[in-house]
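Model the whole thing, not chain by chain.
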Amino acid sequence: MIKSELLYRVLYAHTDMMGVIYYAKYFEYFEAGRNDLLRNLDYPYLLLEEKGYALPVIEAHCTFHKAGKYDQLLRIVTMMKDLPSVRLKLEYEIYNEETLLVSGYTIHSFVNNKTLKPVRPPEDFMILMKSKFK
Amino acid sequence: MIKSELLYRVLYAHTDMMGVIYYAKYFEYFEAGRNDLLRNLDYPYLLLEEKGYALPVIEAHCTFHKAGKYDQLLRIVTMMKDLPSVRLKLEYEIYNEETLLVSGYTIHSFVNNKTLKPVRPPEDFMILMKSKFK
Amino acid sequence: MIKSELLYRVLYAHTDMMGVIYYAKYFEYFEAGRNDLLRNLDYPYLLLEEKGYALPVIEAHCTFHKAGKYDQLLRIVTMMKDLPSVRLKLEYEIYNEETLLVSGYTIHSFVNNKTLKPVRPPEDFMILMKSKFK
Amino acid sequence: MIKSELLYRVLYAHTDMMGVIYYAKYFEYFEAGRNDLLRNLDYPYLLLEEKGYALPVIEAHCTFHKAGKYDQLLRIVTMMKDLPSVRLKLEYEIYNEETLLVSGYTIHSFVNNKTLKPVRPPEDFMILMKSKFK
């Protein structure tokens, strides 16, 4: 498993009139988490784009366990549990201190970033991933 | 089944550098859809809040079929297929003209909007829902 | 003066824990207003992009008079008071019923949408604008 | 002058189809900056709310000098140049490395966070500010 942890501060902008983080915002936090995981692998997402790829989300899910609040310093845990193929699955858990707020996942498809057609992942990316999953 | 259809214009604000609608934005469109469905039932969400209830999302899912783009006049179809109980499930399909862009659902829990503790839905709401599902 | 009026429903997503519309959201409403104004002139913003132009914001201002709230059906009034040149200024007033919530403006620069360098506005756009300001 | 500097990573969520940061997002970055400035003074914004105050924005301005991009690690510089009174002005500069992307300001009013009516700032806040401006 590949894993990263990122601290992320909740803005007023992320809250809603219920006084808690608006549900859709967690999907932005998921993005922050996966950016971080790829950067930590020395394969930042921008590198994928520079090589002509993109990784659009084809499925997203979130379960909301407990309300997050303004100013909390969230811990976004991002996990790649399986070697990617033409698809890549990432799982997320977001904590405030030791309390799990949400868990979820996103599934991505490798595409050509001009045509948006599905393609095989870049070879150097796969070599890197395989080295991590050994 | 209770169903509503809402037209919603895509802003530049909703797009990302891939040139398409950013994935998390669809969950805001889902919200626009469910507001619309409740308003059409003459039971707008604000009425729930005025009565001391809230309906936080406890689970959200979206499958992305095709990229949506700036300036499209999306059609957000919101469906309640089952009589709500302590939980309420809504399903969504978002179309650009005849093309299905995304489909998904949200599951909500009735809570007291002060304590955020789960409660039974308001009686008049249930009477109304039952009249629609007969 | 060229003027347009657009009705826009406030989502829960636009509110914050103060129970009102988050201040930065009004700049998205301004965008909705200017899209509407251009569309009403039969010169939608997408047409500008198709012709190789873009209109990035170079200055934005908003004065907040009164708090907007969830579910209000705002009226976004967008006004072009002066003939555009290399720059275009738009002014906005957003109302809930007869109450002015915010007023503001944005100043835009015509640029080549590949190089992002400033350029003169398209000739057919200027002819159209001149016909409106006669 | 009171000043803080905060590093803030640009998400894909913040970009638009022009490939740059969407203009309204900078106002969220301003919020991140002012949260940081208040926290560094040991008077976090939440403390103001706990004492019954809020600090809504009554005026906001931004000048856009250069386009910001995905994945940049922005430096948000927030400055309080004048001792606050019933109003508080904050100025912002956002840099990518040494390049100034935007500059702007927000003006806030102290209000009672129940009634949203203007009030004098809390005394301990003013004592703290005065000690900084000596």
